[in-house]
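tool=predict chain=A
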Amino acid sequence: MSAQLHLLFPTPIYVDNIGVDFEISTVRQYVDVDGGLISRDQDCLLENRKLKEEVDRHTEYYLRDHLHLNKSVGLKHQCSWILLTDKGGYSPRHFHSNSWLTGIYYFHVTETSGDLEFEHDPPNWCAGNMDPSKQIEEYNMINSTSITFRPGPGDLYLFPSHLHHSATRNNSSEQRICLPFNYSLCGEWGSLTKSMTA
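tool=predict ok
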């Protein structure tokens, strides 16, 4: 057969392991949120110069080598926090508004600490409210409405902030420790009356 299936407009999710050789202090004030604790401090990445340099190196790689944006556009730290999740805790589906790129660095996880799940509902191949996705016989990367990753210690995920994501229940007796962060666009882009400087 000569038929071809073209996958248009993919959502880029960048994954790499940067290790756990960083100083992550969990001694701070926290607020209860949806099965976990989130630090009041929203500049946690800025307190860890070595980790921030490594994150910035990967965000630069994401921008230049994968998205091929020129040097007039960059990213700057917007906020970052420590998220602690005890046994039974989870993070419900959500997205990060008012930012452009979201990342999660997993400092301490075990095999049963829970998965990172990305969702797109309805899928791109459905038209409006005509959604036959419940009739799928075998899920794959084309027809799925959710994709799950199992983070390991030192894993770094980067993805567009508008993408819905969640963390499944922590079934481990150990605390899941991660550092999520948001980055905003900076620099110049667009042209004439559609130009933007941030």
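Residues 126 and 132 are 8 Å apart (CA to CA). The helical segments are 49-66.
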